[in-house]
Design a protein that fits this description.
This protein is 40% helix and 0% strand.
Length: 90
């Protein structure tokens, strides 16, 4: 696929983003962001990933995000014709 669909980005989750940007595991109303059924101290981020991404585990999310970043990088390289750039030494 040679399109970047920012309106339907599957790894964009506002709850997850807000939790990563603000030092809290509770929403603005004080409710726990992590589902009690997915809360697990042994998991990376204690079950936040599983709560926000329909049960997907941390490693699977990480691998998927890396693949998506590579795909976006390839698309941008094609758009910008990076291969044809000529860099002159200073």
């Amino acid at each position: 696929m040679n399109e970047i669909d920012v309106k339907n980005a599957k790894f964009m989750n506002s709850t997850f983003r807000n939790c990563m940007m603000h030092p809290s595991l509770a929403d603005k109303n004080g409710n726990s962001i992590i589902s009690s059924s997915k809360l697990d101290r042994q998991k990376p981020l204690f079950g936040l990933v599983e709560t926000c991404f329909d049960g997907m585990g941390y490693k699977d999310l990480k691998d998927s995000v890396i693949l998506e970043m590579k795909r976006i990088s390839n698309i941008l390289s094609q758009w910008l014709e990076i291969q044809s750039l000529s860099i002159k030494p200073l």
